[in-house]
Amino acid sequence: MSLAVLRSRALAGMDAPEVLVEVHLANGLPSFTVVGLPDTEVKESRDRVRAAIQNARFEFPARRITVNLAPADLPKEGSRYDLPMALGILAASGQIPADALQRYEFAGELALTGDLRRVRGALAMSFGIARTGRTFVLPAASADEAALVTDTEVLAAGSLLEVCAHLSGRQALHPCQPAAATDMALPYPDLSDVRGQLAPKRALTVAAAGGHSLLMVGPPGTGKSMLAERLPGICPAMTQEEALESASIQSLSDAGFDVSRLGRRPYRHPHHSASAVALVGGGSIPKPGEISLAHRGVLFLDELPEFERKVLEALREPLESGRITLSRAAAKADYPAAFQLVAAMNPCPCGYLGHPSGRCRCTPDQIARYRGRISGPFLDRIDLVVEVPSLAHAELAGTAEGESSAAVRAAVERAFRSQTQRQSKANARLGPREIQRFCALGSQADDMLRHAMERLHLSARSYHRILKVARTIADLEDAGAIATHHVAEAIQYRRNLADH
Length: 500
Fold this sequence. Notes:
The protein has helices spanning about 40-55, 80-90, 120-130, 140-145, 160-165, 200-210, 225-230, 240-250, 275-280, 290-295, 310-315, 315-320, 365-370, 375-380, 395, 405-425, 430-440, 445-455, 460-475, 485-500; strands at about 5-10, 20-25, 30-35, 65-70, 105, 110, 115, 135-140, 155, 215, 265-270, 280, 285-290, 300, 325, 330-335, 340-345, 385. By secondary structure, it is of the alpha/beta class. It has 20 helices and 18 strands.
């Protein structure tokens, strides 16, 4: 037989379209050609495949080899086609049986020794294969990740030789068992480590309960980063569906996904020198950025004014929609980006405005320019702003511990259950009609909000965000209706925003 056809998967955003790997051997001068819109990584697989076949003690046919990756109009990138190419050559040359190939799909990068290395996007590919009923054969380093999709049978292999032994019936590969969501298997940093700061901790609790965005303003060293790191530990537990969705996006990154972290909310902390492409994603073949890798988790932007303005402006749309669409000349990709934004900044360029030491020497113009690096439309999309002041020695040296993350998380879980029972989503994700239905105010609370709107010159977006935050505060108190003091607290968080 001089023709073999195998199946593999490409990656296009969150999807993994099927790719037919057609291998044909013909008479003529020895050559190895790959067609079907391959990129450089795929073209380089020719040398890896040749060396892997020879080092696995098979014969590399001295014939004219043509590999077609179909459909031809779908861009092919990555090294995942090494394994199906090698198997196709061996099947077409009669060195392994070809009749069993139709029951499987293959993906894997080959080392020159014939060993298999991990591939990017194993979980996304496994989701695609689940609909076909075929078995997925891939490197052992990626098998645990792919096995998270319980509808797909996954076989883990360590080398090309092991795959050939399985297809020849000499030694079967064993199915990989899926891992269970752990959530708290690796402990989160505990909120009780943060001394004092009762107001920021309260804002953090409100943010966790309703999925709201948060901006912390304060001098250096007051605990802003510590507070942000502890937010994932007090957020509600992810559902199995959310955990798999988050894991699937992370599996598309170059770092891959560690199955021991299944169920843990992502915490992404990009440096302020990050580009817009690094944050929102991109490339000639679009890959997910930090906002998508933080899906269902926390994106922490420290030193917010130090980020380039165009980088922050790129976050405005995904903050509202929870998705990002990347359009390039060669491809288009749509990624989820339902992240929770937490940001921190100093009150002025030197950081010590209002500090008891009186160290700040910044002029009003310098302060205005510093704060002006963040646009009004971007700030308008932040739900809560809270001051994180310097602490006195007595608060730092005291032995009394604050509430633990476990205690705060229990209150957050109760509030979140109320939201899911009432509207099946977090308060931060409510639309205009849902706000009208679930965030109705009494006459006194409505009068208070109306006066605040006039005095602070708030936008319609600010009005809706105040209502959503007030609804979350009421849920934390297990209150059915939004009371005046709930609205007052929500307005105060918005007033802090107006001050900055």
